[in-house]
Amino acid sequence: MNDLRNELLELAADVRAVAEAATFRGAVHELDPVAVPVPTPKVAPAVPSAWAEVVQEARRVATGADGLAAVRADLGDCQRCGLCEGRKNIVFGVGTAEADLVIVGEGPGHDEDLTGEPFVGAAGQMLDKMLEKVLGLQRSQVYILNVVKCRPPGNRNPTPDEMAACMPFMERQLLASRPKLVLVLGSVALKALLGTTAGIMKSRGMWHEWSGIPVMPTFHPAYLLRNPDDKRKTMDDLLQLRARYDQMGGRRFG
Ligand code: SF4
Fold first, then answer.
1. How remote is the CA of residue 119 from the centroid of ligand 1, in Å?
2. Could you tell me what percent of the chain has a pLDDT over 90?
3. Where in the chain are the domains?
4. Which residue's alpha carbon is nearest to atom 2 within ligand 1?
5. 171 CA to centre of ligand 1 in angstroms
6. Are residues 218 and 198 in contact, defined by beta-carbon separation less than 8 angstroms?
């Protein structure tokens, strides 16, 4: 009987010792978080993107000629808005992908629609003169694009819906070109690019910014053909542009 009692007492002592040791270990873990085993984080296996998405993304980040070619390829035979119905050509853009200056106009007119090149009519000739005489640049040394790539019928302004459909491509062209400066011509392009409600009269001659790039607005050459008295103001705007272009190391290559 005594043997049995002693065995029971020893067993009880063992159980108490185990319990005390466990309690001690728990207390140590609470005091010292390092002692608590940290579960290995489970890393979800990478989900491979569809190849098309990878290509698409690569195109989005491409710059220079590759970037512009990728934007043109994505635009394709665009029918994203009603302007596709009357167009003869998509007028994508012209000039060098290495340009330090990008010029943004509103949309193609009759001559541009026929040739597929922006600013080739009378307004285009005036733009060429402005570039050459004031900035010392040839058309081949800049990049010229429009907010919408298809001619609005009767040369009307593009509607907000038409601009919204086309503007992602303009923005991607700008991001691919990464110019030092942007010259924006006329109210329609100004409002589209900067999302401002202020017209060209109030905004011209002052520096603005798009995605970190300084933007100078001035009158559209077509407006100057009808209002030659405002050529002087345009000259002032371009002289400001020239000063900043030179200050930023803008190139006159080609
Ligand atoms: S204006 Fe732009 S969005 Fe509309 S059809 Fe032409 S390219 Fe496409």
1. 17
2. 72
3. 51-247
4. 166
5. 14
6. no
Select from 217, 101, 215, 80 the least CA-distant residue to 158: 80
- The stretch 32-51 carries a mean pLDDT of 49
pTM score above 0.70: yes
Angle between helices 160-177 and 187-194 (to 10 degrees): 70
| CATH among 3.40.470.10, 3.20.20.80, 1.10.10.10, 2.40.40.20 for 51-247 | 3.40.470.10
Q: What angle do CA 49, 170, 240 make, to 5 degrees?
A: 135
Pocket of ligand 1 (CB under 6 A): 75, 78-81, 83-84, 90, 148-150, 162, 165-166
The pLDDT tens digits of the residues spanning 216-246 come to 999 999 999 999 999 999 999 999 999 999 9
